[in-house]
């Protein structure tokens, strides 16, 4: 054994040195260190070694195994280095690097981030809620009667469970008032869903940004000043903004907001961009009933709410004529915003 082990080591190291590729090197490893390898079989013969020689023979086995393993690792590293060197042959490292295409944010993300930034500077904080809602948070708490068209299956996506895909992010305002105390000043950007026919100005899923401010003595001038400032910041200080009387079940009085759009070569025209109004006392009463307190007593607090479509704002900002461009992922269109 004392002569056999060094011989196995010498032969193994010689074969390792001669290995021309990783396959040959693996054959050497299996032939020497594998289950039926020569060194493994020699180790199995330790049971026949006299007791007084076991320590010396065991040391020889350990030294041989260590030397062979180290030799295999060194050879493997050398073979890899050689392969890497060959892979680089013919490459001119002085050539300029290929230009990487620059990425950019989607126009909807750009307009959303800018809108949120303007409103946050006015003290609004972000709020969020589920996109799968129940009728109470989406309609009942917002003073929407059962016969309202928005509650019809032709206009809203209902599930068999009775829940639905929210038709607006106003449901987030309700959930915020259920858990927070006045004063409240929040905005809720997010997706909304309606059964609209898809065309140049409508999608069945769109992006909204809604806001709510509730406190003592919140007035209509507060609403008007907030939204005029917002649209002047978004579209420019010279932008004309007007408020038209309208009806929403959850606000009274209610208004729609238009901005005057000026396009080169065309006559200026008004375009609707948002809806708003003072929170209807019925909404506060519904909140108090659910909370079982009077924190939103309509005799003590008032508030205003507003909502706008981010898709429409993006179309106005960049003169996009077809809303479908915002969801088609056409790189030729999107790279204009990078």
Describe this structure in words.
The protein has 2 domains: 4-87, no CATH class; 107-337, BirA Bifunctional Protein, domain 2 (2-Layer Sandwich), CATH 3.30.930. The protein has helices at 4-18, 22-33, 38-44, 54-87, 107-121, 135-138, 170-179, 220-235, 281-291, 310-318, 331-334; strands at residues 125-126, 132-133, 164-165, 184-193, 205-215, 241-248, 251-261, 269-279, 302-309. The relative contact order is 0.10. A hairpin with a 7-residue loop joins strand 7 (251-261) and strand 8 (269-279). The chain is α+β, with helices and mostly antiparallel strands.
Would you kindly provide a brief summary of this structure?
With 338 residues, the protein is of the alpha+beta class. The protein has helices at residues 4-18, 22-33, 38-44, 54-87, 107-121, 135-138, 170-179, 220-235, 281-291, 310-318, 331-334; strands spanning 125-126, 132-133, 164-165, 184-193, 205-215, 241-248, 251-261, 269-279, 302-309. The protein has a seven-stranded mixed beta sheet with strand order 1-4-5-9-8-7-6, with helices on both faces.
Terminal CA distance reads: 74 Å
Structural class: alpha+beta
In which order are the strands of the major sheet placed?
A: 1-4-5-9-8-7-6
* Number of H- or I-type helical stretches: 11
């Amino acid at each position: 054994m004392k002569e056999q082990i060094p011989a196995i080591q010498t032969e193994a190291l010689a074969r390792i040195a001669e290995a021309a590729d990783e396959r040959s090197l693996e054959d050497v490893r299996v032939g020497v260190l594998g289950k039926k390898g020569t060194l493994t079989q020699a180790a199995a013969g330790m049971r026949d070694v006299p007791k007084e020689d076991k320590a010396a023979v065991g040391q020889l086995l350990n030294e041989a195994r260590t030397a062979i393993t180290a030799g295999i690792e060194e050879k493997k590293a050398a073979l890899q280095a050689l392969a890497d060197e060959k892979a680089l042959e013919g490459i001119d490292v002085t050539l300029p690097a290929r230009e990487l295409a620059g990425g950019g944010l989607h126009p909807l993300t750009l307009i959303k981030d800018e809108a949120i930034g303007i409103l946050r500077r006015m003290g609004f904080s972000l709020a969020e809620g589920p996109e799968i809602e129940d009728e109470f948070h989406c309609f009942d708490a917002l003073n929407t009667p059962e016969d309202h068209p928005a509650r019809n299956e032709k206009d809203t996506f209902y599930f068999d469970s009775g829940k639905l895909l929210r038709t607006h992010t106003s449901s987030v305002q309700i959930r915020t008032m259920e858990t927070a105390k006045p004063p409240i000043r929040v905005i809720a950007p997010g997706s909304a869903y309606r059964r609209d026919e898809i065309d140049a100005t409508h999608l069945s899923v769109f992006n909204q940004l809604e806001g709510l401010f509730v406190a003592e003595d919140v007035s209509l001038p507060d609403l008007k000043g907030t939204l005029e400032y917002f649209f002047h910041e978004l579209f420019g200080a010279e932008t004309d903004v007007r408020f038209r009387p309208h009806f929403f079940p959850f606000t009274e009085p209610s208004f729609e907001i238009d901005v005057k759009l000026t396009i080169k070569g065309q006559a200026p025209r008004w375009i609707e961009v948002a809806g708003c109004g003072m929170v209807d006392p019925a909404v506060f009463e519904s909140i108090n009933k659910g909370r079982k307190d009077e924190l939103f007593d309509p005799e003590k607090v008032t508030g205003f709410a507003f909502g706008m479509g981010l898709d429409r704002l993006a179309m106005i900002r960049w003169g996009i004529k077809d809303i479908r461009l915002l969801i088609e992922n056409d790189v030729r269109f999107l790279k204009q915003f990078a």
